[in-house]
Amino acid sequence: MTGVRETTDARDVVDFLLDQHQQIRGLLSDVLDVRGPERQRVFDEVRELLARHETGEEMVLRPLTRKTPDGSPVADARFAEENEAKKVLARLEHLDVDGAEFESTFTGFRLSVVDHAAAEERDEFPLLRRDHDADTLVRARGRLERAEKMAPTHPHPSARSTTANYVAGPFAAMLDRARDAFSGS
Q1: How far from 141 is each of 9, 18, 60, 111, CA to CA, in Å?
Q2: What's the pLDDT tens digit per position in 5-17?
């Protein structure tokens, strides 16, 4: 399992996600710095990390954000961005990583993902820290880590809500792992 690491310290869900955002930013930059099989490997790593990361956020973080005063519009905006990213990431999976279409699509995708992470860091994380106690946020980190471990490894644009992730997620994850095993990803 690439990119998803379990922690045992008392750091909270925000700290955990900030670390993942840094990891994602690095991988997104790395994709365009290499070519051929190495580009495919790095793209597969970032694709899996993003699929797991976004699923975890949708299942754990968004409901927590909705519980904060004025949190629903923030959660809705992040959901919309994630749903668009799933579509683009699914499209990228079917392109030749060394082709011009991949490069131009990925360049726009990378900017969108970086903007999305910045919006979470600016608009969502402060709400969580302001309106939830430390124990709640530490427990949320544990739930998010568990959700990521069980999450699909490929984007599933049809899972457009928290409910869809709970219903379809385990089955999609099982199919993704079989797909990865056969493709060598």
Answers
A1: 10, 12, 9, 26
A2: 444 456 999 999 9
